[in-house]
Amino acid sequence: MAAPHLLDGRLKIRHLVLMIAVADQGTVLRASEQLRVTQPVVSRGLQELEALLEVRLFDRGKRGMTITPVGEVFLEHARAVVAQLNSAAEHVQEVASGEIGTVTIGTHLAGSNRLLPAAVDAFKKAYPRAGVVIQEATPDLLQVSLLAGAVDLVVGRLAAVGSDARLEQVALYREPIRVVVSVDHPAASMRDPQLRDLIDDPWILPVAQTQLRGELEVAFAREGVELPQNRVETTSILTLRSLIVSSKYIGVLPELIARDDRQLRLLSTPLEGVSRTVGVSSRRDVPATPVCQAFLACLVDEGRRIRHSLQ
């Protein structure tokens, strides 16, 4: 006997569901009640399935339906197919809701100490099965990775990421840049120290050609002083902090980074016009995945809380 053609369009999912219900309930009546359909619908569906398979799946008797040996074989496959379809539907729903999947975040200093950890924590509590990958790099490399699709979102200083028309940027909060010393630095006990009062101390500053360095040069010039001659230039946050804490250097840091560090002291020294807008960047031409949208929502929520704390 030639094998029936189950993929020619005649076999329907409802045939499998009807057979499983009859096998589980034992009668057409109870199966129809479970499925909330009429008995003729169940009976006709079974007849169609048996005609398609060219076998008898159930023996009909006064006490109900008794599955045949051939029916047992097909029932096992029917259950597997329906289970797979249910699993697929659940999987699709999980992906669509952001419950599973992976989001890759690029970051560089700005937002990495408060915004990003808080957003990750909130996201993982809501979506424990979703994955988060965080990659750190310089702003120029992060922009390349974002445009190439290697990362989904970039969290950091918006101006540092660039103004490429292909990028969508969402500002979350504006954070002041502050003059920072160690808690035991002599300047920590000074009342309202000005830049001119600190100019002879060793400093650690951003490297030339960075946006922050340019803003600092303007701020120093506005106060009528030149950049400190005794200085180290670096982009390494770990080196910067170590020199401030252990070697009594004066440095500049975003307020939230310094405020959370018990070994650092924020000075009241004014740096007019020196601040940064922290936000998230994504590609305009690539629709965000559900998991990416869910993580972005967490970033926006945490950004709102930080913005209020800075007011």
Structure description:
Helices cover 46% and strands 21% of the residues. It has 3 domains: 85 residues, Winged helix-like DNA-binding domain superfamily/Winged helix DNA-binding domain (Arc Repressor Mutant, subunit A, Orthogonal Bundle); 97 residues, 3-Layer(aba) Sandwich (D-Maltodextrin-Binding Protein, domain 2); 102 residues, D-Maltodextrin-Binding Protein, domain 2. Strands 3, 4, 5, 6, 7, 8, 9, 10 and 11 form a 9-stranded mixed sheet that branches. Strands 1-2 form a two-stranded antiparallel ribbon. It contains 12 helices and 11 strands. The model has no long low-confidence stretch (mean pLDDT 87). The protein has 311 residues and is α/β, with parallel strands linked by helices. Helix 5 crosses helix 12.
By DSSP (H or I, 4+ residues per run), the number of helices equals 12
Low-confidence stretches: none
Helix/strand order: HHHEEHEHEHEHEHEHEHEHEEH
By CATH, the architecture of the largest domain is named 3-Layer(aba) Sandwich
- How far is the first residue's CA from the last residue's CA? 81 Å
| Fraction of helical residues | 40-55%
Quaternary structure type: single chain
Strand content: 15-25%
Which overall shape is indicated by the principal axes computed on the Cα atoms? Answer: rod-shaped
Mean pLDDT: 87
Biggest sheet character: 9 strands, mixed
Question: Could you say which structural class the secondary elements and strand pairing correspond to?
Answer: alpha/beta
Number of strands: 11
> How many domain regions?
3
Q: Rg from C-alpha positions?
A: 33 Å
CATH class of the largest domain, named Alpha Beta
CATH-defined topology of the largest domain: D-Maltodextrin-Binding Protein, domain 2
